[in-house]
Amino acid sequence: MWGEDEAGPYQAIPQPGRSWQKEGQPARQPHEYVRGGVAKLLTLFHPATGAVRAKPVTQAPNAVLHPWLKQELSALLAMLPEPVERDAPGRRWSDWGWSEAEVAFFDPRPQNQRSPVRLVLIWDNLSGHKSREMVRWCVERGVVPLYTPLGGSWLNLTESVQRIVVRRALSGQHPQSAKEVMEWLAAAVAGWNAEPTPFHWGGKRAERRQRARERRHALGASGGYTRRPLARGRRSLLQSLSIGYAHDK
Description:
By secondary structure, the protein is of the alpha/beta class. 35% of the residues lie in helices and 16% in strands. The protein contains 7 helices and 7 strands, in the order βββααβαβαααββα. The strands form 2 sheets. Strands 3-2-1-4-5 form a 5-stranded mixed β-sheet, with helices on both faces. α3 (132-140) links the parallel β4 and β5.
């Protein structure tokens, strides 16, 4: 599972952030507003390993994004082993919410000739990401595009790692040009990949599910526990007799 996002634009202006200065000598930034250009960061992120594939650019239209993304996804698919079982869990398109009609629309080949799911790509819900040519390219190669809902870009962990990379590259700095911004972003990505940190999906919903899985019910002072609560109330003799009589009747 990989996530993709385009971070930016980042201007070549004094960037806010902390800096080490002598006491009584705070950092000073120029007050003139000089436009030095902007830069963006095309990013592919693998949460399971923390690996980042990124490319700094000055702009990110489909003509720039799609060729770069196809190149990176082709390299990733080449490193993946061929699936042994086409109908294994997670290999079927229906496991990811795709109907047979949707898959056939982008890949009209017979079902036994289509590629099983090999890679999951999490994307923003933008019209450019849903172009027929790009989606067809993905489906034919077993790449499942999953789109985050409108206003839910935080579901893509790529944005989280982008904030870390951008903060390391630009916090408290004053780049003079877009080229300098791109160089610093590329250096920050290289530094991250030198010792990447895996990410884990979380949030309040994940915490509730984890608590439900780990819920335990203590059994007095013995230290034992059960996964399900035990009935604590005792029936009276009259209640037991009435229940037994109802069953016999």
